[in-house]
Design goal:
CATH topology of chain B: Sodium/glucose cotransporter
CATH architecture of chain B: Up-down Bundle
Number of helices of chain B: 19
Number of strands of chain B: 0
Strand content of chain A: under 5%
Order of helices and strands of chain B: HHHHHHHHHHHHHHHHHHH
Radius of gyration of chain B: 22 Å
Order of helices and strands of chain A: HHHEEHHH
Shape of chain A: elongated
Number of domains of chain A: 1
Helix content of chain A: over 70%
CATH class of chain B: Mainly Alpha
Shape of chain B: globular
Radius of gyration of chain A: 22 Å
Number of domains of chain B: 1
CATH superfamily of chain B: Sodium/glucose cotransporter
Largest sheet of chain A: 2 strands, antiparallel
Helix content of chain B: over 70%
Strand content of chain B: under 5%
Number of strands of chain A: 2
Distance between the termini of chain B: 50 Å
Oligomer: heterodimer
Number of helices of chain A: 6
Structural class of chain B: mainly alpha
């Protein structure tokens, strides 16, 4: 039987993927409106793409015997950082040639490159490595799977 | 692309190709079985796999088309590569462990193998193989054309001969050494490209006075260029982020490499190393795109008549000729490596997946794999040579088809026990139908979506929704479609 905590997390991740994909579909649909996509189309798309990426990460990281555990924090941090990056990019005024520079780039471009582009690199692959044995794969998992495979093969050969 | 032939560039290119041939001969001696040919005998170590995987993730587009696109539309083109910070770790959590373990318990060697095992469905495996085969020929034709341009630019042999010389070298190592030759050639050229990319980025910063110098040069003349979406609409830029982020989970040339890792426990450091490697290689994409725009804005370079000339013009005008020679040879090698990967996947679809779907197995799969390799390569070269503007259409079509047909059934299917084979088949059929129909209508100018809506993005959305909707409607069948060993892999 699947552990209840894991089943709930999995259902939540799948629901988030479906809702986020619908939001992206809504963003695309807004572009069909005459006169170009309204501003809410971009907001909807940004929310959807953040949701679908983080929910897919969570779905992939879930094991049968555990919830997200320590991974919940880096996933939440990534979602907040990407989401906040989109909010800032949409909400900050476009001041054209007079936009202040941040790390050598106009402010909004810097938020995109460093916040949405580079920040997850500092968090997620490190979280993956640090939680690998606890959350992803252990020697004992491999030994159990290999023993099961050998037993199945022996049974098949016996039946054959 | 301008002619770049000079004695030093030709010598470096010849040395580069000699290196490729040497690696191929060595690999051919180690290729004895079908498993060696298609998944390198599951014997590749972490560092080699990481560098090869970085190399396989980039093609000529990253060095020529990408910087050109960035020069043309500004930072909107950055949204194509921004997902790189997420895609490697996404692939690691969602696919790497489960595919590698399916390789172990089921002997799976291909992406359709994983789909067939997951749903206990030869039909699903067959549909995935057909979609892959169609997309592979399109993708390869685009890369053959890019290779023809580069070989012609270096050696001045003409476009037609450029394609045939390039495909000849690629075929020689693909037929002889299979994916093993491809992997070690990828290691060779991936290392060189990472070093060259960092050096080129250094020259971009030096000639423009750093990032601030670039921004100060561009902002007065083209402020939108350095805006968050460049000159594109927000939805068009975000569509890139979605398609290249989620779509990466359906690119067989990348995800197929998970089968090759010697020890699954080595996956621990794989996403970190690959992401860092990819960022180094992508410095050229970003640097040349904005750097050339700054040079044009300050009058130090004439405006480009063709955006794809951004990289060659920068290399020839602002870097030492030896570095330019290394990058040009690397671009040729990158397209060859991309073609090698696609040939291998296409050959596996023909000689392994489609026969399995039809309930047959070939007697000598290795020999037929080599025959299929030659046939597919020649077909792609002919398409590239004689289809004119159709080639660009086929490249776009290939990417979108991989994403919309494989992401739901493979990435979600291997992680969600509620998925059903009916859902998987419905999503693959939706992806195939929507992509073929709307890309064809757009190609013949009969109908195209409004600005910002891409066929690949919309078909990915529709195939995901079809997958979950049909799986939900047929959910009672789900438990009976999972074999115990596959369930064990999914539960880890």
């Amino acid at each position: 039987m699947t552990a209840p905590g894991d089943a709930r997390s999995r259902r939540a991740a799948v629901s988030a993927i479906v809702i986020s994909t619908l939001a992206i579909g809504g963003g695309y649909a807004s572009a069909f409106v005459g006169g170009g996509a309204p501003p809410w189309g971009g907001w909807l798309f940004a929310a959807g793409v953040t949701g679908v990426l983080v929910a897919t990460l969570a779905l992939g990281a879930l094991r049968r015997d555990a919830t997200l555990g320590r991974l919940a924090l880096p996933f939440a941090l990534t979602a907040v950082m990407i989401g906040a990056g989109f909010v800032a990019v949409f909400a900050l005024p476009d001041t054209g040639a007079s936009e202040p520079l941040l790390f050598g780039l106009p402010r909004r471009a810097a938020i995109v490159l460093y916040g949405i582009g580079l920040f997850p690199t500092l968090v997620l692959p490190v979280a993956y490595a640090l939680t690998f044995e606890a959350q992803t794969l252990r020697e004992a998992d491999l030994a159990r799977l290999r023993a099961m495979t050998r037993a199945t093969q022996a049974a098949d050969e016996g039946a054959g | 692309m301008p002619r770049i032939a000079s004695p030093l560039i030709i010598v470096v290119a010849l040395l580069y190709f000699a290196g490729v041939v040497a690696i191929s001969v060595w690999s051919a001696r180690r290729t004895r079985t079908t498993r060696d040919f298609f998944v390198a005998g599951r014997g590749i170590g972490l560092v080699a796999l990481t560098v090869a995987s970085v190399s396989a993730s980039v093609s000529g587009f990253i060095f020529i088309g990408g910087p050109g696109l960035l020069y043309r539309v500004g930072l909107g083109a950055l949204w194509i590569v921004l997902p790189a910070s997420l895609t490697n770790v996404l692939g690691a959590w969602v696919l790497a462990k489960r595919m590698r373990l399916l390789g172990e318990v089921r002997g799976a060697m291909t992406v359709p193998d994983a789909i067939g095992a997951r749903y206990r469905s030869p039909a699903a495996q067959g549909i995935a193989a057909v979609a892959i085969l169609i997309a592979v020929v399109g993708y390869m034709a685009t890369n053959c054309l890019a290779m023809g341009y580069v070989v012609d630019a270096i050696f001045g042999v003409g476009m037609g001969w450029g394609i045939w010389i390039g495909i000849g070298i690629t075929l020689a190592y693909s037929v002889a050494g299979g994916i093993l030759a491809g992997v070690y050639n990828d290691v060779f050229q991936g290392t060189l490209m990472a070093v060259a990319s960092v050096l080129v980025f250094g020259y971009v910063l030096r000639v423009n006075g750093g990032m601030s110098g670039i921004s100060h040069a561009i902002m007065p003349v083209a402020p939108a260029f350095l805006g968050p979406w460049g000159t594109m609409t927000p939805i068009a830029a975000l569509s890139f982020f979605f398609v290249f982020g989620m779509g990466a989970l359906g690119q067989p040339q990348s995800v197929h490499k998970y089968y090759m890792l010697k020890d699954p426990l080595q996956l621990k450091w794989y996403p970190l190393l690959k992401t860092l490697g990819l960022i180094l290689v992508l410095l050229l994409y970003f640097g040349v795109g904005v750097g050339v725009k700054a040079l044009v804005a300050t009058g130090r370079m004439a405006p480009l008549s063709v955006a794809d000339e951004a990289t060659p013009r920068f290399l020839l005008g602002f870097t030492p000729v030896l570095l330019a020679a290394l990058v040009f040879s690397g671009i040729a090698a990158a397209t060859m490596s991309a073609i090698n990967g696609f040939i291998n996947i296409g050959a596996a679809a023909v000689t392994h997946d489609i026969p399995v779907a039809l309930g047959r197995t070939l007697v000598d799969e290795l020999r037929w794999g080599r025959v299929a390799t030659v046939v597919i390569a020649i077909a792609a070269a002919l398409v590239a040579r004689y289809s004119g503007t159709m080639v660009a259409f086929l490249g776009i079509f290939g990417w979108g088809l991989f994403a919309s047909t494989l992401v739901p059934s493979l990435a979600f299917g291997l992680n969600w026990e509620g998925a059903t084979r009916e859902g998987a088949i419905a999503s693959m059929a939706t992806g195939l139908t929507v992509t073929v129909t709307f890309e064809t209508l757009a190609y013949f100018k009969a109908y195209s979506f409004p600005s910002g809506v891409t066929v690949s993005g919309l078909s990915l959305v529709l195939s995901i929704l079809a997958f979950f909707t049909v799986s939900g409607l047929t959910r009672r069948a789900a438990p009976g479609q999972l074999d115990p060993d596959v369930r064990a892999v999914m539960e880890l």
